[in-house]
Design brief:
9 helices; 3 domains; 5-stranded antiparallel beta sheet; SH3 type barrels; Alpha-Beta Plaits; about 60% helix; alpha+beta; about 15% strand; about 350 residues; 3-stranded antiparallel beta sheet
Amino acid sequence: MTDERAQSTLAPILTDMSTLADILGAKLPFILIGLTCFIVAFILSGPISRLLVKPVKHFNKSELVALVTKRLISLLIVLLGAYVLLRLSGLTEFAIAVASGTGLAGLIVGFAFKDIAENFISSLLLSVQKPFKIGDVVDVASNTGVISRVTSRATTLVDFDGNHIQIPNAVIYKSIIKNYTANPKMRSHFVIGIGYDASASGAQQLALDILLEHSAILDKPKPQVLVDSLGSSTLNLKVYFWIDSDKNSILKVRSVIQRSILEAFETAGIPMPDDARERIIKYAQDDDVASLESKSSHLSSKEKDANSVSKTRTSGSQNLASREQHVKEDDLESEVSEIKEQAQQSRSPEQGDNIL
């Protein structure tokens, strides 16, 4: 009885195994063909993708675009081989389910990694459009510095304080980008006020002569000195000039020009008064006259001391002026090249290959 029960229990299992063996025997050639197709597709995905991506390089020089295109082509070829394997194995419904599941999984992953995908797509667009290149001085997202590295996730700037600033590519793509290196010619300006009793045209010509004589000021576009506004106590002149930012620092040139114009105005006797101030004089009462007289005696003694101090300052200023005559020409060299060298020598905090 025990043997009969065991045989009755194992009979369905043996029947199913026999049926499965018959099915496998019938499907085995197709499975082998499908497996061969999958292996061939996997092996050929690399060479085929490299061959098909060559026309892309003729239209676009971006290495990132070529790499992404090559990987997409390889993935499609491998998926095609897997689909053929499942179809030949008789798993047509499973093949369709895998294909649809892949699309659904891609959608879920896209939502889960939205920021990463956004940065990656932005890096693709930046590599295609190329609004800047490595070594350019740009202002983006309220940060000014030298482009040090651009990867598939972020762009690294080295600012003029030597700090590394990483900005996500999505932020850069959405921001206003000001490229200072694209056109090295830069314009600067400042305002200087003169008294109303001075000749405005004479002051303008004097300042313009200083600009035209300076070697760092470009002749084209020409510098200008224009009347900007009428202040409460001064006639305000606005000085415009252009420089080559690759050679000279705009901050240093502006400092030297301001100092030169100030010295020229002082030599020519052109007054530069400060803002007008209102003074309120309160008349003293009769009983305060005595105290005022005592205060005036103290003030007279202080004035004597002040006169001696002013004489000392005058002699000191004369000595300083004599020293300034022997000072060499000011250093106007741009510091951008030094920042670029620092960016090349420093350790990059952003891991990944450059895409530009």
